[in-house]
# Entry
Amino acid sequence: MLLIRRFEEKLDELFSSGVIKGTSHLYAGQEAVAVGVCAALENADLMTSTHRGHGHFLAKGGDPNTHVADYSIGFLGSNGITAGGLPIATGAALSAQMRGSGQVVVSFFGEGGANQGTFHESLNMAAIWRLPILFICENNQYAMSTRFDEAFATPDIAARAAGYGFPGEIVDGSDFFAVQNAVEKAATRARNGHGPTLLEAKTYRYYGHSKSDKCEYRTRDEENDWKSRDPIKKLRAKCEISDADFEAIFSEIEAQIKGAVEFARTSPEPEIEDLELELFAA
# Structure
């Protein structure tokens, strides 16, 4: 969780200073969701991610020097299309079922994705075929600048699972152990052939939707309220990690981040021919 936090903070610093161009969608504040989910999975299990995907990748065991996709750890890639990973994950779950691999597939998406057509199509198909898939909705309260209660007539997304005939559960997205326990139960259910589960993790992003977002649509009091429940501080308190141990962990992670920045800085620019690598069409 601390690796993800420091990775995102360094990204923000590099974007703000102009070293990295373009934009980025930061995951800081939501670390307990990704890490709690991955702590309950097996190495062979598969995962699809979102535009806010650095945390998912690192939680699955990804190398900070690389990102986007790594099939060797079951990370099928990030997706910049809202809810774009849902049908991909559903297809991967169908493949796992047909192959009898015993794999579980996890699909992360934000609450904004729950109002996309692919949400209904994916959950309905997964329910009909009892696919081994976990739909993880990270409800961070805002789809870009749209507040949750402005886009949903009900207080919880998890309740929608009932319409498809499988369980839906709400979990505290700032509590690592709560997330881990919920995913362990859902993954066991999926491996035993009982089909999907929809988990809604209530969480909060500390930064704007993207790099250019100044968060003028939410109050500083609201932000401070969520930060008072910071997932890293909460986990540290529960595990009774001393100052000395925390500093040791922090120093190790700082070295990792420094190494990743140096790796990126000294890596050669891609060649134009690289545009055609790893592409396929069906």
Q: What stands out?
A: The chain has one domain: 2-266.
